[in-house]
Amino acid sequence: MCYSDALQLWEAMIGRLKEELHTAKAWNAQYQKQLTEHGELMSHLCAATLHNQHLKEENARLEMKYVAEREQLIGHLRAASGEVQQLRAEHAAENAQLKQQHAAENAQLKQELAAENAELKEELAAEVEQLKKENYAKGVRDMRQLALDMYPNAIDPSVLSAELLLEPDYYVMGCSPVRAEDSQ
User: Fold this and answer.
1) Binning pLDDT at 50, 70 and 90, where does residue 128 land?
2) Which residue, 97, 105, 108, 162, has most beta carbons within 10 Å?
3) Pick from 117, 98, 94, 118: which is nearest to 106 by CA?
4) Could you give the CA distance from residue 141 to residue 153 in angstroms, rounded to a whole number?
5) What does the alpha-carbon distance between residue 143 and residue 178 come to, in Å, rounded to a whole number?
6) How confident is the model over 18-59, as pLDDT tens digits?
7) What is the structure's pLDDT at 30?
8) How far is the C-alpha of 135 from the C-alpha of 130, rounded, in Å?
9) Distance, CA of 39 to chain centre
10) By the 8 A CB rule, do 79 and 26 touch?
11) Phi, psi of 172 (to 5 degrees)
């Protein structure tokens, strides 16, 4: 895999992360909308509480006439309070579920990123190793050609092969051989 492929892979991962960010933003917008709706319910609850206080003041003056109405309003208030508690519980459950999903998705993305990173490192190491081998072989061929060019009458080209230059027991005219370990 070449660097441009790796770059394209990273760009694809970034695109996928952008899509997930867009999805998270959409979830957040929906969450904000729900919070606004909950705020309206709280506003209605506050208004109902104020109205109840007014009725209590009226009740002090007209207690016998409005007893039935007062009991009815208290029943509505309890029902609204129960609904608010239920909405709060549902909201807390949804929020916990979203947090769990987000944590799971993040963990999965980290695992995928780590796996892809390890794979890219392995591919890069293999490419580097291949380039080293190719460059080393070219260096040995160049060294053979240099020896033949410098000593055209002293060295028989059919005897001097690139493999012989790498042999540890090959000595020609007091020269030491080149080994694979020396070149690295």
Assistant:
1) very high
2) 162
3) 98
4) 19
5) 10
6) 999 999 999 999 998 888 888 887 888 888 888 888 877 776
7) 92
8) 9
9) 34
10) no
11) -120, 120
